[in-house]
Structures are given as C-alpha cells and as structure tokens.
Amino acid sequence: MSELLDGIKQAFWLIVTLDADLVEITLRSLQVTLSALLIACLIALPLAAILSVRRFPFRRITIAVLNALMGLPPVVVGLIVYVFLSRSGPFGVLGLLFTPTAMIIAQVIIIVPLIASIAHQSLRDLWAEYHDLLISMNTTQGQRIKTLLWDSRRALLTAALAGFGRGIGEVGAIMVVGGNIDHATRVLTTAIALETGKGNFALALGLGFVLIALAIAVNLTIHWLSHTEREGRW
Amino acid sequence: MSELFPLDVTAAQVRRRGKVLVGPVDLTLKAGGVTIVIGPNGSGKTSLLKMLHGIVRLNKGSVKWACGTEEAQKRQAFVFQTPVMLRRTVLENLIYPLRLLHVPKTQARVQAAEWANRIGLGDAITRQATVLSGGERQKLALARALIRKPDLLFLDEPCASLDGRAMREIEAILHGAAANGTRIIMSTHDMGQAKRLASEVIFILHGKVHEFGSAGGFFDLPETPQARAFLNGDIVD
Do the strands B208-214 and B152-156 form a parallel or antiparallel pair, or are they unpaired? Predict the structure, then answer.
C-alpha cells in the first residue's frame, strides 16, 4: 500500500517538476504511438470500408483472419519485425532496428487489425442502412466508401482510440525492436518494465500513473475536438 | 439527350432464396403521367419498383430503356417507404446528390437552401436529419430525390404512416414535379391518393401484373374479379 502512495507521490513530483527524463520519454511515447496510429488509420479505415462495400472471393475469410489478428501477440510481432530489420534480414540495410521507426512499424502491425475490425463493424452496419440509397443515387464505389467513412467518422474515432490504447500501452514488441535505449528508444512502457526489473516500484508506479493520465488526456482531447456526445450527433 | 421512354419490360423476374418476388412481368411504359402501382401486402409492389429502377438484379428477362440502362440510371431517383437519412444535417442531405453531380459547393448550398425552404424545413437546415419527424424525413427524402431534377421518380409508398397534413404536402410536391415534366411511378396503399394522382394504374398480385391500364378505366370498370374485390376492400387471395 505504501508503494502505491509512494508511486502517486513520485508521479505527482515527476509531473510538477517537469522531470526532463519523464518529458523526453513521454514525448517519445506520444510520437511513436501517434505516428503508428496515423499510419494504421490510413491503412485500416479504407480497408474496413472496402471490406464492407465490395464483394470478392474469400471476403469472409479475410474478415475472419482480420478479426483473429486482433489478438496478435506483440512479442511475436516484435520478433518478426526484428528478424526483418536485423542486419541479416531483408531490410537490414535500412538500419532501422533499435530506432523509433522500428517501434512505429511494430505498432502499426499490431493495431491495424484492431482498428480495421472495429471500423468494419460500424461501416458494415451503416452500409446495410445506406445500401439501396447509394445504389439508387448511382454512386461509384469510391463515392460510397468516402460517404461511409465520413458519416461513420465518430464511430471510427472509437476504433482509432482503441488502437491508440493498444499502442500506447504496448511493451513487448517495442522492447524487442526498440531495445529500450536511454535517450533513443525508451518510452513509458519500457521504462516501467525497466524500473520494475530494478526493484524501483515507486518510480515504476509513478510512470504508470503518468501513462494512464496521458491515455485519458489524449482520449478526452480527441473527444472534445471531434464534438462527440453532443445532442443529435454521432 | 435521348428519350428515357418507352420502357420495355420483357419476362422480367426477380427471385431470392428460391422464392419469386416478382415476375415474370411484361410491361411497356410510355413517357408522361403518373403510374400508380397498387396491390395487397406482399404482392410485389416494392420489388417491382426496385426491379424497374435496377436496385435488384434480374434473374430472368429484361428491362430496356430507350436511352440505355447506364444513361437511364443517371436520370432516375427513388424515394423509399422508410426514408434513408444520411447521418448529416438537413442541408447536407440536400447538398449530397448535387455534389455527386459535381455541382460547385456554393451553388449546391444555394439550391439546397431553396429546396429546404420549399419543403418547409428552412428553419431546420442545421438539424441532424435523423432527428426529424416521419413526415419531415419523407419530405426531405423527396426533396433530395427531386433536387437532381430526375426525368423519372420512383416512390415506394411515400405516405405510409403519415398523417393527412404531411400527405397533402407530399402530394403537392409530387404535383409540382409532375407539372415540371418528371415522370412518376409510385406504389401506394391509399386508394384515395391513387385516384388523386394516377393517370395509369398497375394492379399487381402474387408478383405478376394482373391489370394495367388508364386510371379512369381501372377505377370505374376493373376487368378482373380480383381487382374489383381489391377496390371494394375485400381480402384478395
């Protein structure tokens, strides 16, 4: 119990004093996860819309695989990305291993199926509602996809926030491909793992509270900016 | 621009899961006027309209427009029995079809606002369309269809479950559209409305066109016992 209180105190002081290390790893956490989120959304949302609107062979299998990939073990993803980016791997020449870019790549692979699956549920329901109308309006497939994405934007925000939650709290993959290098690839989650390993529970808890506060703050900011939960809106 | 009509329907049939929804239908529709489709529940009115409009795929037969199918589809609009509202404001619902036609944004906004005023929703342009009442939704759906200036308008029981006032307003819009040269093909359950609007009538039963002719002839002297029974309000099997 005293460790919990110490953790809260540590978190408070780290924030109040704007601890330089804390600011650095917090900003890196945000940079890695928000970059991964942006790239993942650019891949996952159109993919979800195409899966909703288009009919093609193996579509159901594709959706089932996508849903199954939501449970991808991050450590395994990290390992695979490690193999690809290591010196002897196919992309070793790019020298990306143990850089934030490698961490972004790993996070993108982890969160794309999650965002795509959640987005697909919403887009599929909206497509069922709009189907006859959009066909009757003689829309092209591109126009249908654009309409669905725009009209589902608030539901898609939830999908993106789920992806953000998974990304910001991820430790296994980014530890493997990032290496938790101080002032280079250390982020909040890997720092927590390190401090816990060193037996520095109060600081680990403090960082944990900062991580939770950060996740909540980003979620609230996005909700506020996108005007969700207002009357008559979605 | 080539003519949309005549529309030639030859042995057209739509089946779903082994059940015939409509057909085989043989029909020729000419330009001008209002065609009303009537028939008991489940007789295939909606399926017939959707088949003509091209929303449902034909299993047999053909639906041939004078100007060709692709061109014809661009010149038609459809109003559904349960109006589908885009999850946008009233104004944005009206702007949407215009933007599909690449009308510039400012011009689309002006036209949409004009239509919103015309249907009595001028004060509600910033409201979300899905929170409108049933009558308002139907008027908006109708305006959204007519704003594209279609040559042909399909309506599937547009006044079902609407009160007298909303029905009058919708009929007034339809009269205006017909007067401006829009060909109307509409299904209804309301015999009063059918008599007020129809220039010709299709009586459909068990998915087949049972009787087709001028409104005057059909309402005054129906040819078949089933049509007579239907007009008398009897149950038709």
Answer: unpaired
